Amino acid sequence: MKYKLIAAVAVVTALAAGIFSFQYVQQVQLPEHALVYPKARDLTEFTLTSHKGQPATRQQLQGQWTLAFVGYTFCPDICPMTMATLTGAYSELQAMLPEGQKLGIWFISADPERDTVSALANYVGYFEQPAITGLTAGHDKLFPFVRDLGLMYAISSTTAPDYLVDHSASIVLINPQGQLAAVFKPELKVGEVPLVTKAILLADFPKVLAQLQ
């Protein structure tokens, strides 16, 4: 009789645990196009220059959430489309954060030869979003920083003035402690430009935040 009681209790406990796990999974939905790091990663110290000509370091990442993207102003497709997406989704993304927390956007140029401070200022100004900061640096500082973000870029060896720059289409999320917390991956469709769309951002951003809390 004693063993039957123990077995019955075990079954009830297992069922309760199963129900709880199911409810938890239902409540905390995983993002479809974003990867949340199991442990936020500290970024190595860096020094870039903003589109206002001011130095930008890890200190500027403290106290706010930051969506960072690597591109260049001469980019024909991914960059202007991604920047337009970030601008268009900004107010809705900001509203998803807890009260009092702010969201910044970093556009990191992978083309310092053409993307001077003034060129970046003109480019950033086009989107009319005060939360955007354009950033540049020499390749000796830029490449290690971009790699530290888990992103990449590569410049063609051609001497043509209209050269293209290969770069990641992903957007990374940096937490208010200045740590790399998540990355939003672009939607890949045959024959189309790889993009993190507004629909992806709005659907996955709250799910990412839920995982980070």
Descriptive report:
With 213 residues, the protein is of the alpha+beta class. It has five helices and ten strands; from the N terminus they run H-E-E-E-E-H-E-H-E-H-E-E-E-E-H. The chain folds into two domains: 1-30; 32-212, Glutaredoxin, CATH 3.40.30.10. It is 38% helix and 23% strand. The strands form two sheets. The protein has an eight-stranded mixed β-sheet with strand order 1-10-9-4-5-6-2-3. It is globular and about 50 Å long. Mean pLDDT is 89; it is low at 1-26.
CATH architecture of the largest domain: 3-Layer(aba) Sandwich
Assign the CATH topology of the largest domain. Glutaredoxin
Helix vs. strand class: alpha+beta
SS element count, helices: 5
Secondary structure: helix percent: 25-40%
Terminal-residue CA separation = 46 Å
Overall body shape: globular
Strand ordering within the main sheet: 1-10-9-4-5-6-2-3
Q: What is the number of beta strands?
A: 10
H/E series: HEEEEHEHEHEEEEH
As residue ranges, the low-confidence spans are 1-26
Query: What average pLDDT do the residues reach?
Result: 89
- CATH homology superfamily of the largest domain: Glutaredoxin
The CATH class designation of the largest domain is Alpha Beta
